[in-house]
Amino acid sequence: MASVGLILLAAGSSSRLGEPKQNLLYEGQPLLQRAIQTALASSCEQVLVLLGSNAEAFQASLNDLPVQTIFNPDWQEGMASSIRQGILALNDLAPDIDGAIIMVCDQPFVTTALLNDMVEQKRLHGHGIIACSYQDTLGTPALFDKQFFPELLALQIQEGAKKLLFRHAEVVTPIDFPLGTFDIDTPQDYEALQQHRFGE
């Protein structure tokens, strides 16, 4: 039976937003806490949270949660550095893990059911990569078989895991997630979330 870990990326500085997106409230809960609770309720066996910018502001609220918190000292280099740190830590914590879901904290409509569906697809069919499909593209959350860990470790600067989705398109299994198109990068995005004008 396949075992899957989850790496939650939450190290960025939210420069376009002007304030830490991890602390933005949706339905009365900070986005980071919401993402962590969603991940913990899933069938993933390890949940790692990558922190960087403003890490001290978030750490205290995570101390009582059953997650592994990883500080990325190179967070300013971009997303690739957090992915590398997450994969290295996951390999250390769970060397027998079969795959990892890469997830971000600013997609508020990710559900535990979606994550479980990805894990189940992996267990049933052994897919190499399972990625969410929205707005004519593929993206996070995305599950990568362990065979792709070396390529995730080789990502550079601002490269994200999406690069692998195109490089290995022939082994990618898509899962429909229409609301995946909605993430929060700007004040306008957050306003739309609060007014439920996403997807327009």
UniProtKB/TrEMBL annotation:
Xref: Gene3D superfamilies: Spore Coat Polysaccharide Biosynthesis Protein SpsA, Chain A
Q: Give the domain of life.
A: Bacteria
Sequence ranges assigned to domain MobA-like NTP transferase in this UniProt record: 7-170
* CDD domains xref list: GT_2_like_f
Q: Which GO terms describe its molecular function?
A: nucleotidyltransferase activity
InterPro entries, alphabetized = MobA-like_NTP_Trfase, Nucleotide-diphossugar_trans
Protein name from the UniProt record: MobA-like NTP transferase domain-containing protein
The protein's organism comes out as Adhaeribacter aerolatus
